[in-house]
Amino acid sequence: MTQPSSAAPTSTGFDPEAFLVVPARTFDDLSVGEVFRAPSRTLTDAHAAAFQTVSADNHPVHYDVEWARRHGHTAPVVHGLQVLAFTAPGATLFPHVIGEVFIRFLELSCTFLGEVHSGDTLYPALTVTALDAQGDDGVVTTSATIHNQRGELVLSGQHKYLLRRR
């Protein structure tokens, strides 16, 4: 019968820091027109209720069916900030693609173009629209879009990130 060894296992050459989802790229490796999609997501009443709890936004347009109908909506409206959250870069492969060159998220803007309701499926995407080199760093501008299951654009916006160059 063999006794368990207390010695450390021998190295296999595995490097956890090299275990990447996709090969990391820098600012200079990105191209205008590249698209980073997030998986589609169907919103449920549970998602809306969870966001309402976290945000403390208790406006009845978000949870009261009759109030929403009396005010011209077909159903309670999902919180706009919850819809915007689906454009988070981390919902896409973008953070994996840029690896360790990310410095910070600089800004975002958006326009809400259509209502989102429980049961809608959202299709978020970030598209690189500009690459502005600034010395050792660079600013990446992306358009942020969300379409619903009917192909309607419900959110349009822009993100800017500061990345290190090579």
UniProtKB/TrEMBL annotation:
Pfam families reported for this sequence: MaoC_dehydratas (PF01575)
Database matches in InterPro entries: HotDog_dom_sf (IPR029069), MaoC-like_dom (IPR002539), MCH/BMMD (IPR052342)
Top-level taxonomic group: Bacteria
Record domain MaoC-like: where: 32-142
Family named by the database record: Belongs to the enoyl-CoA hydratase/isomerase family.
Name of the protein in question: MaoC family dehydratase
Native organism: Streptomyces eurythermus
Lineage: Bacteria, Bacillati, Actinomycetota, Actinomycetes, Kitasatosporales
